[in-house]
Every structure is written in structure tokens, then in C-alpha cells.
Amino acid sequence: MIEEFLKYLECEAAASPHTVRAYETDLRLWSEFTAGGEDPVLEEVTLDDLRQWLVHMAAGGASARTLRRRVQAVRALFAWAMRHRGLEVNPAAELVPPRLSKPLPSFIAPHETAAVLDAAPDHPDDFEQVRDHTIVLLLYATGMRASEMLGLIDADVDTARGELKVLGKRSKERIIPFADEVKQAIDTYRTLRDATVGFTPRHFAVRPTGEPLSYGMLNRIVHNALDGNVHSARRSPHVLRHSFATDMLNNGADLNAVQRLLGHASLATTQVYTHLSYRDLQNNYQLAHPRAQRKGG
Known about the structure:
Distance between the termini: 56 Å
Helix content: 55-70%
CATH architecture of the largest domain: Orthogonal Bundle
CATH class of the largest domain: Mainly Alpha
CATH superfamily of the largest domain: Intergrase catalytic core
């Protein structure tokens, strides 16, 4: 039965060789557990049998992603048998695979962010050094996406009002405020930029020629600024966005306000940062509360 199903996948369903090999491996493991390596009699397999197989694999250390793939392989076999071999009952249809855990976003500890941003450029007349420092400061201060920074138009950065306009996903515009510290950095950068380029470029962040930055250049700017200075596993523009959201919530910002600042269409997307905030709260409690430090606390 399994051999016939695999031939069906390869010849009729036009599945990729990778998929066929993966299903073959998964189904062989299942048949080994269920019928000692022989073809299982599908009519005799119950939902409890399948659940016991899941428990066995989980106990052996299989990841949630692996378990989901193996469940899918067994489901596909049973569905095929119902369509092509007259199987009347499909217990695999009720087999619920484990949910994949969503990794929490990487972020930078506030004191590390402060150390990076408080370090002035070594040469205040060096255009690229001043530009890079301003970009890192602006990414953290506004929570902008990398694409939004790259597309930021100079005329949309208003230091008099302390706000800027970005074009986010699905071409949605939003206004993001910024503090006086950022305003001063922008004014300094603009003066040096225009003198270096020879004119006021259309884009805010540019090369010495006046051409806009590429994503690779922006990523290198952020990586170089963070490398060796932070403990985050990732050192990308998106880490600064995560850090902006996490620090805002940890310092009492309203969740809906952070959603609007980030440009999230759904509040659920923003809520992942509440988990980061709560984790930080738990860590502080465990470290600081005297009852938590006692054995069994």
C-alpha cells in the first residue's frame, strides 16, 4: 500500500523527489512502529494508534516541525486510500499535529542600545560615520522597517514638527513622532550630507553620490554598529524595530499606540511584544523579590 501511494505521488501527483523521499521515510517509520515494518492494515488502524505513535516520537525527541510533517504524510496516505482503494474510515483526519512554537523576536537590552547610540562618531566631519549613526538612531527611535528607511523621502522628515511620514506595507502612510535628540542628529546629518553631495537629495539616507542606499548597505551599517556592542544573536535593522516596540511597552506605552507606530494591520501582530515584556517582568521578579529567591519560590 505504501509503495503504491509513493508511486502515485511520483507519477500522478507530480510531487517533487524531495517530498516523495520525505514521505517515504516518515511512512516507513510509522509502519515500523505500527506493524513491525510490514504494510499496516489501514482498516485496522485507530486514532488511538496514531496518537500513541505521536507520543512515542515526541518522547524520542522529535521536534514539533518533524511531527507535523509525519502527521501530514500519514494523513496523505489515508486520504489517498479513501479515494483510490475504497477505505471507508479515515482516523488520520482527526489526528491533530502539535502547533509550531513561534520564536520570540530578537531584541537588544536597553542599556546596550543606549551605549551604541550615546557613542558619537569618531570623526564628526565624516559624512558616512554621521550618516550611519543617524540611521541607527532613527531606526531605534521610530521603529521603522528597513524598507521604510530606504524609501524615506527627505521632504517627509519634518524636524520643526518632530515627525516623519513613511510609506508602509500595502502603501499605507503613517506619521511617526521623534524626540529632540533625533531632531538634532538629523539637522547635523543633513547639513553634512548636502555639503558632501552638493545638493539636497530626494531620499533621506543616501550615499556620498546622492544615490539612495541599498538594503545590503543598510544591513551592513546596522550590523557594524551593533557588532561587538550587543549580545543579541541578530544584528539587523529589524532587531532595532523589535527593540523599539519592546522598550516602549516595557515603559508603559499603550499597546494600540505601539500598533499604530509600527504600522501593524492587526493588534495580534503587536501582541508578541507583550510576551517579551512579560518575560522581562518575570526575570526582574525572580531576581528582585525576596520571596521568589527562596527555595520553591
